[in-house]
Structures are given as C-alpha cells and as structure tokens.
C-alpha cells in the first residue's frame, strides 16, 4: 500500500510571519537614564546628555524609545530623542520591543501582494521560533481574510480553523 501525502498534494498555501521578521536587531532605549534620579527632566541637562550620547550604536537597528520609570514627561521629550536616533536606526517607535514589532508588521503586511492566496485555503503558520507578536497574526488575518477561501492557524497536520468564506 502506497502512503500518500495529502498535505503536499493540497492547494493549501502557508503564510509564515517569520518570513517577514526583521533582520535588524531590536533594542529598547530607556530614556530614564538621562533624567535626574530617573524621574526629573531638566531640559538643559537632558539636551546636553542627548548631544553627548553615542548614537552610532543604533546603526541599522530597530529602536523602541521607552521610559522604565513612572516619570511624567513632556510630549516633546521622546520626540527629541527620536530626532537623534532616526539618522542611524532602520525603524523607530515609542514603546517596547514588542510595540516596535507590532508597528513593523502593521507597515510590512500592508505592502504585501495577497493575490497568491486568492480563493485558496491558507494556513497562518503558528509555532514561531522568533518572537512574532500575537498582534501580527491578527494583522495578517485581516489581510488574508479579504482574499482567502479559508484560513487555519497552526501546522498542516494540526490546524485550527479560523475563517471560511461564505459563498
């Protein structure tokens, strides 16, 4: 008796978010290090510390600008920090490393051509080896649901149905 791999013969398309994971390293920049006692922003001192910082260390990196203390900051503080890091970094946002990945996926997935998945069953591949945030799966689902016949999550051998187009 011949063993037939029905998964390999199916028209199932796999959408793997790891294929789009950024190649650059992701770093969180904690601006509390430039605040007095980690909480108080003195504008002159803050600007001096920013001007003396080694910004080249962020070359080609994804930088998430955050503050790990409960400091109350003026709106311009993180924007000013961003103005220094933007010339070096590949991608900059306010928040955590997870926030930057969510924003990156939001931008990246909006630019893709989804016609390959038109009227086909799609598996949104789970079990990532990389830190793909759960929000990225929802973003991908929003795009795929417009074109796919059906969408499942996981692996071909154990997929969980998520969506089926009503005809």
Topology:
Layout: H1 6-9, E1 13-15, E2 26-30, H2 43-52, E3 62-66, H3 76-85, E4 91-94, H4 97-110, E5 121-125, H5 134-144, E6 150-154, E7 160-164
Helix pairs in contact: 4-5
Please supply descriptive tags for the structure shown above.
167 residues, alpha/beta, three-stranded parallel beta sheet, DUF2480
Describe this structure in words.
The chain is an alpha/beta fold and 167 residues long. The chain folds into two domains: 6-22 and 102-164, no CATH class; 26-89, no CATH class. The chain has helices at residues 6-9, 43-52, 76-85, 97-110, 134-144, and strands at residues 13-15, 26-30, 62-66, 91-94, 121-125, 150-154, 160-164. The protein has a four-stranded mixed beta sheet, covered by helices on one side. A three-stranded parallel beta sheet has the order 2-3-4, sandwiched between helices. Strand 5 (121-125), helix 5 (134-144) and strand 6 (150-154) form a beta-alpha-beta unit. The longest helix is centred in the middle third of the chain and has 14 residues, at 97-110. The protein starts with 5 loop residues before the first helix and ends with a strand. The model has no long low-confidence stretch (mean pLDDT 93).
Number of domain units: 2
Order of helices and strands: HEEHEHEHEHEE
Percent strand? 15-25%
Low-confidence stretches: none
Distance between the termini: 38 Å
Largest sheet: 4 strands, mixed
Number of strands: 7
Number of helices: 5
Give the helix level as a range of percent: 25-40%
Gyration radius (Cα, Å) is 22 Å
pLDDT averaged over residues: 93
Question: Looking across the biggest beta sheet, what order are the strands in?
Answer: 1-5-6-7
Shape: elongated
How would you classify the helix and strand content by structural class?
A: alpha/beta
């Amino acid at each position: 008796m011949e063993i037939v791999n029905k998964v390999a013969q199916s028209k199932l398309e796999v959408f793997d978010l790891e294929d789009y994971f950024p190649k650059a390293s992701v770093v969180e920049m904690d601006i509390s290090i430039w605040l007095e006692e980690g909480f108080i922003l003195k504008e002159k001192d803050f600007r001096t510390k920013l001007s003396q910082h080694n910004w080249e260390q962020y070359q080609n990196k994804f930088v998430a600008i955050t503050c790990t203390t409960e400091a109350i900051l003026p709106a311009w503080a993180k924007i000013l920090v961003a103005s220094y890091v933007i010339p070096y970094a590949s991608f900059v946002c306010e928040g955590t490393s997870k926030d930057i990945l969510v924003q990156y996926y939001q931008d990246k997935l909006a630019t893709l051509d989804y016609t390959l998945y038109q009227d086909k069953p799609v598996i949104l591949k789970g079990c990532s080896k990389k830190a793909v945030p759960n929000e990225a799966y929802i973003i991908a689902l929003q795009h795929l649901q417009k074109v796919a016949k059906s969408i499942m999550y996981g692996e071909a051998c154990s997929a969980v149905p998520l969506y089926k187009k009503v005809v």
